[in-house]
Amino acid sequence: MACVLEAPLRMSVLSEVTASSRHYVDRLFDLDPQKVLQGVIDMKNAVIGNNKQKANLIVLGAVPSLKVSTRKEFSCWRSSGIVKWKGLMNGGNWLLYLLQQETSSTELRTECAVVLGSLAMGTENNVKSLLDCHIIPALLQGLLSPDLKFIEACLRCLRTIFISPVTPEDLLYTVRMQALKCFSVLAFENPQVSMTLVNVSVDGELLPQIFVKMLQRDKPIEMQLTSAKCLTSMCRAGAIRTDDSCIVLKTLPCLVRMCSKERLLEERVEGAETLAYLIETDVELQRIASITDHLIVMLADYFKYPSSVSAITDIKRLDHDLKHAHELRQAAFKLYASLGANDEDIRKKIIETENMMDRIVNGLSESSIKVRLAAVRCLHSLSRSVQQLRTSFQDHAVWKPLMKVLQNAPNEILVVASSTLCNLLLEFSPSKEPILESGAIELLCSLTQSENLALRVNGIWALMNMAFQAEQKIKSDILRGLSTEQLFQLLSDSDVNVLMKTLGLLRNLLSTRPHIDHIMSTHGKQIMQAVTLILEGEHNIEVKEQTLCILANIADGTTAKELIMTNDDILQKIKYYMSHSNAKLQLAAMFCISNLIWNEEEGSQERQDKLRDMGIVDILHKLSQSSDPNLCDKAKTALQQYLA
Q: Which helix (H) or strand (E) holds 79?
């Protein structure tokens, strides 16, 4: 059973091959793995410093330009010293085949890589033969191994091939780009890897410095972009400071350049999205980016695709623009969101950009989920502006499409949209009233029941904002929509943010005396029970302070305060917190006492007497000597109520 070699070897060449050389190659095909390993080790020792032996081994078939599908299909027979194969070899040469097989031991794969590296150190023809066998992909695949010795052997072989003058420049560029992309992915949101990479030195030069050189304008655009992504990932991971010159003077300007009209559409998309990520959390980088190369105005061009066409010759361009139009709008919205995250002046410039609010409103109803999400993020960023909430947001009635988005959207969009709604429900927002009239309470109450934590937080947060200085009817509607059962569920939520926002909601509901008395007359028992549970539980200082503030509000009611005075357990807890080691809790507890003993109110004398009998006055005398001025003043004010 014979098969044909791809390139028959000349007998004149074969005649020069020594019997010992054939012996090394023959052992590669043994069925005993240990004999194969020993054969490779012997081959390694034989080729060290011996270029003729290296050439012989390549000629013999250690590195033939053959292809084999599986080892089972491999069979050989020898005739006149010529090795022939049945089947075709899918992976280059036999050494490469052994190197790539998962069934090969790590030791065998390592020794194969060492031999290949040694062969590459021979003549330029050796390197050409290795390249013809597609050695580069095989070695790069080896870098994914968990074994460090094998990785080192692959890297050494790669280095030998790359420094050879016969290695094509385009191959070197391709590998360099793959390495850059690998670094970018590895460093993304990975502080440990980023801190390692930032200290890597190559020929005396740190890796970030090498990346900076690749940002230069004379480098290929792909290289500039990928290097900028590497530095961005390392910066966001905390390995490079945001005020480092390589970020401020090199990376950021490079990414802004990528957003210009001169760049391809796909390059503009990647540049804008990377820049958005770079500046997302840093106020100073946002400010610098906003004044670099008219970036805010430049981004407006992202919304002008696809461009109008009239000639049949422009159909290809139209098709290209259509494919990238969604990506461009998404990238622009993302970058605008990052730019406007903190600075009021930047937000103003963004909103004043050509048709910006109309573009955001249109983006909220786009067919692409990614564009809708980016548009909502942009709206959320701009909604942090008090001035814009009162003007542009009202002029364009952005609450309408936002409410529509909230009716039926994936959780990813719901989270950002509900965060935006929280801002639109702030007391000074003109959108608050029409949002209330559109049925927002029912929607927000349903969000508080979501399994998604962020949605629960946003739902209760929005209700808290809605309840601030609201009419009694709205407060009653909120309590009715939540139900007592759901309120208790939120107050027992394991997440402290949900608990704090729920307490904030209760505090806003229990404001102004008529509202306090009305709510406590209908929900007093449940609220007092919840307060007791929280004060008895293992909660942080902020949670207990907020709970005591709720008690202080209840104590300010006309009839509601009796729910405290008739609850000895609550009174003892207030007394306990007056003597607590934390001044914030002491102060909050004293607000409760002050509201209970205020002598201008009916029944104050009886309340004062009961609290005196509990020892409250003695505690007030001690606190009046406190070194904390707030505690001291509050205690003295309370004592005056007893003297009046």
A: strand 76-79
Contact 302, 268 (CB under 8 A): yes
pLDDT tier at 466, thresholds 50, 70, 90: very high
- pLDDT higher than threshold 70 for residue 3: no
Do 317 and 303 contact (CB within 8 A), yes or no? no
Mean pLDDT (the chain, rounded):
87
Q: How confident is the model at residue 56 (pLDDT cuts 50, 70, 90)?
A: low
- Which of 56, 21, 158, 39 lies closest to 98 in space, CA to CA? 39
Q: How far apart are CA 626 and CA 551, in angstroms?
A: 23
Q: What is the DSSP letter of 76?
A: E
Reported as type and span, the H/E element at residue 201 is: strand 201-202
Q: How far from 426 is each of 344, 393, 439, 492, 601, CA to CA, in Å?
A: 17, 13, 17, 26, 33
Give per-residue burial for 475-502: e unless 16+ CB within 10 Å, then b: bbbbbebbebeebbbbbebeeeebbbbb
Give the integer Cα–Cα distance in Å for 486 and 490.
6
Beta carbons within 8 Å of 642's beta carbon, 6+ residues apart: 597, 608, 612, 617
**Structure-token pair, residue 628:** 């904390």
Q: Distance between CA 596 and CA 554 in Å, rounded?
A: 9
Do you know the residue count of the chain? Answer: 644
Q: Kindly list the distances between the CA atom of residue 276 and the CA atoms of 116, 286, 308, 451, in Å, as whole numbers in the listed order.
A: 45, 9, 28, 30
Dihedral (C-alpha) 265, 267, 273, 278: value to the nearest 10 degrees?
Answer: -150
Checking 392-398 for CB contacts under 8 A at 24+ apart, the result is: 392/351, 392/357, 393/357, 393/424, 393/429, 393/430, 393/431, 394/430, 394/431, 395/357, 396/357, 396/358, 396/361, 397/431, 397/434, 398/357, 398/360, 398/361, 398/364, 398/424, 398/431
pLDDT for 60 beyond 70: no
User: What pLDDT does 88 receive?
Assistant: 30
Both tokens of 332, joined, read 């622009």
Q: Give backbone dihedrals phi and psi of 368, rounded to 5 degrees, phi first.
A: -80, 125
* Cβ contact 113:152 at 8 Å: no
Cβ atoms 133, 151 nearer than 8 A: no
Is the pTM higher than 0.90? The answer reads: no
d(CA 477, CA 459): 15
Strands (E), 249-290: none
Determine which of 84-88, 162-166, 286-290, 551-555 has the lowest per-residue pLDDT on average: 84-88
Tokens of 412: 């990813």
